From TrEMBL:
Pfam families: Lectin_C, PAN_1. Gene3D superfamilies: Hepatocyte Growth Factor, Mannose-Binding Protein A, subunit A. InterPro entries: C-type_lectin-like, C-type_lectin-like/link_sf, C-type_lectin/snaclec_domain, C-type_lectin_CS, CTDL_fold, Pan_app. This is C-type lectin. Keywords: Disulfide bond, Signal. Residues 1-19 form the signal peptide. It comes from the Eukaryota. Residues 20-108 form the Apple domain. Residues 115-235 form the C-type lectin domain. It comes from Littorina saxatilis.
Length: 240
């Protein structure tokens, strides 16, 4: 009996380790499936499996370049593996609520830019901070959460290249004045406030932004009223 318990424990450990490997950026997530149709490429289809098992199977199948899985991700659903990342009208469009994962060779979805293990998109449409975060979420992303000078410079360059004078960042102290948190609720590991900022001017500034329109700002951050409408940058982390 003791030997059986040992073997079962070992198997669980190995599977757990393997699952961790498939969180290390093998696939990038596509949330918006309005035009996503895979071209006659279905390799396999399994029912009642986890998202990690689906990713594991695709990654272990040399010809599998992408897979689709139903949202929400924590349920057990139908996994479909595909031999292509190309779009076509020759196959059935995934049903509403499906999430697609493209092989890492694609790096980022179309129109997104890659840095490290994240993809970024500048959105020129002005929105309040809350609406900007909501818009990013519809794409399976969130307002950019900057955690290094390299990332700060990269995102700032995106904003200035677009000619924007302001752009929202994923940081606010809406919950508790003076306690700036990321949209995830975690404290930032990196900040680059301009001198004298954040200053909560007139008690109404709770959301962080770039202000390249001000020559004194450089790539530093400013706080502004969350109800103002600015362009923004979305960041999508690679999931598997």
């Amino acid at each position: 009996m003791s030997h059986l318990i040992f073997v079962m424990t070992l198997v669980v450990f190995v599977l757990g380790t393997e699952s961790c490997k498939f969180r290390e950026s093998l696939f990038s997530r596509i949330q918006d499936l309005s035009d996503l149709v895979f071209a006659d490429s279905l390799l396999f289809q399994f029912s009642a499996v986890s998202a990690e098992d689906c990713a594991h199977t695709c990654a272990a199948t040399p010809s599998c370049l992408s897979f689709t899985y139903p949202a929400p991700m924590y349920t057990r659903g139908t996994c479909r593996g595909h031999a292509t990342r190309e779009l076509s009208s020759n196959d059935a469009t995934p049903s509403a609520g499906t999430v697609a994962f493209l092989g890492k060779k694609d790096k980022c979805p179309r129109s997104w830019k890659l840095l490290g293990e994240s993809c970024y998109m500048y959105i020129s449409i002005a929105a309040t901070w809350q609406n900007a975060q909501a818009e990013c979420e519809t794409m399976g992303a969130g307002l950019v959460e900057i955690d290094s000078q390299a990332e700060n410079s990269f995102v700032f360059t995106m904003v200035t290249a677009a000619g924007a004078e302001h752009a929202w960042l994923g940081l606010s102290d809406v919950g508790t004045e003076g306690l700036f948190l990321l949209p995830s609720g975690q404290p930032p590991t990196f900040t680059k406030w301009q001198p004298g900022e954040p200053n909560d001017f007139r008690g109404r500034e709770d959301c962080a932004m770039f202000r390249p329109g001000n020559p004194k700002s450089a790539d530093g951050w400013n706080d502004a009223s969350c109800d103002r409408q600015f362009p923004f940058v979305c960041e999508q982390h690679v999931l598997f």
